[in-house]
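Justification of resources, computational component.

The compute hours requested in this renewal are based largely on the per-chain cost of generating structure records like the one below. Each record pairs the submitted sequence with a full structure-token output. That output is archived, and it is also reused by downstream analysis tasks.
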Amino acid sequence: MKFIEGGICAVKGVRAGGIKSGKTGMAVIQAEGSAAGVYTRNKVIAAPLVVTREHISKTGKLAGIIVNSGNANAFTGLQGLADARIMASTLASKMGVEDELIGVASTGVVGRKLDTGWISSHIDQVLDSMGENAASSMSAARAIMTTDTIPKEIAIEMDCGIRIAGIAKGSGMIEPNMGTMLAFVYTDAEVHPDVLQSCLTFSVDKSFNMVVVDGDTSTNDMVLVTATGQSGITPELSDLQAGFDYVLTELAKMIAVDGEGATKLIESKVTGAVTEKDARLVAKAIVRSPLVKSAIFGQDPNWGRIVVAAGYSGAELDQTKISLSFSADTEVVDLVKNGEVVRNDEKDLAKLKSIMELEEIFIHTDLGLGYESATAWGCDLTYDYVRINAEYTT
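The structure output for this chain reads:
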């Protein structure tokens, strides 16, 4: 596997483009092939997800995706559904395809009517901007941003010859239960929709579903994957799965590090759990905890908050068997071994504080009970998170 340039446009058969004007943007991605999707588990589900899920379940294919930013088109009732269908038909008519071959996505403020007039009047501008190069992929990635500070994209080429790439947006309202985050992934492999769905679901569960910025699950979370088949290669299932796992995990980490107001990426690895579910519960409890996140922002070596989070996670746990360490770069500090505190003097707490000062921090919690493991990603909780969300619509 190797990294390649070009974002989603590095995949054969993908064209993309986008425009952004203040908080309002629109992107179009054209790529025809088998398709699959994973969607939010929030019981308030945005209209675009309803429409897109209907389309993919009916056809198993997509020919294009239209995305708007600035308005979530969520909690908008029958009018919202009609507006999502207008978005689909607007692009379908321009591409000369059936409406059911178009995916629709929206992100932004919940509960406000979508301005479909703006979409209709600007779609030609987006279509004129489309291309098959790195700049085109980047324009689409930027167009779907809301409070994101950086565009998120990645492209790889597997040893078997297929390419897999994706773009994503997400910065706040992030604890995906898929499944406000969106991701659009492409491959030029030849893949049946059922296989695509299975691989996507598995990858989402170990990547996006292990990211926590603030513990809120958006109404608009959606990951779509399209396989254009233009490489002519049907890869081994293990290769395809490994490629999706890698791409989605990297995008998930980009979302975590770009959490609203974030200054640090936190990786929480849990080992020694009785079940994988227990490992996941503990890993996510740690990166979800406001006290842990605040301590890391303030570089306060108050490591007891990690143990507390593990204890209330709901996982099976024996406090006499827990081990805990922090690391960053080449620095490692062991704090607890088999339930016993091994480092707690001023020298070691100063070392822990110095680790917390770095931009990427790794927390390893060994439950000492079994052989299952899981990893979650999150970010620190800063003053700016409150400011951004206090001023979101103003």
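The chain has two domains: 2-257, 265-390. The first strand starts at residue 2 and ends at 3.
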